[in-house]
Amino acid sequence: MTIEWWMDHGVIPFDAAEAFMKDRVHAIQKGQALECVWLLQHPPLYTAGTSAKEKDLLDHGTSFPIYHIGRGGQYTYHGPGQRICYVMLDLKKRGKDVRKHVQFLEQWGIETLAMCGIDAFQSEAGVGLWVNLSNSGDNIAKIAAIGVRVSRWVTSYGIAFNVNPNLDHYKGIVPCGINQHGITSLHAMDKLVAMDTFDRYLKMCFEKVTSS
Fold first, then answer.
1. Strand partners, 146
2. Checking CA distances to 101, which of 63, 107, 115, 128 falls within 20 to 30 Å?
3. Percentage of the chain lying above the pLDDT 90 cut
4. Would the CA dihedral through 93, 208, 2, 195 be positive or negative?
5. Domain covering 3-211 assigned CATH 3.30.1300.10 in the classification
6. What secondary structure does DSSP assign to 47-84, as a single string?
7. 88-102 average pLDDT score
8. What is the pTM of this model?
């Protein structure tokens, strides 16, 4: 199946990205457009998913705008230095299995981070990808967040990787409702991967996981 890839290296306003996703999802549903993966960055902002709890919002819009959106999950942060992957796929062609789609995103992320020398994993601590910050394994932090929406079997939103964002910007929320673990990034773990290189790894690993 042919998938269109878009790789933007500027900062894309959230409203514009959301409008594009909505239009592209409708076109895919009608068979009028190819499936699409869009790699981009946003200006600093918070998004609230369908499970977001008001108590987890510590900064009530004083620093960054807040967007209430239709993806699953709770509050998360987006900003420069984070590689956001919006994934618009037709699950009618892929088994109509939402959980399998989430597992695909997880495996794609694990494979991509492995290319960067990072051993990421799923955890009972929450949805997303995690890493050990100590050899003992009792200090973990999230390095990628996952949140998806499925409309008439076409997906949107996806996975966001912390390559080199300002981690202090997470202080305005309880990320994904989890306050007992931290947030980290590739650069914070001394993996100084350039965004262009990370994009190349993303595309390679997407094709690898899709074909496996």
1. 159
2. 115
3. 76
4. positive
5. no
6. EE-TT--GGGB-S-SSSS-EEE-SSSSSEEEE-TTEEE
7. 96
8. 0.94
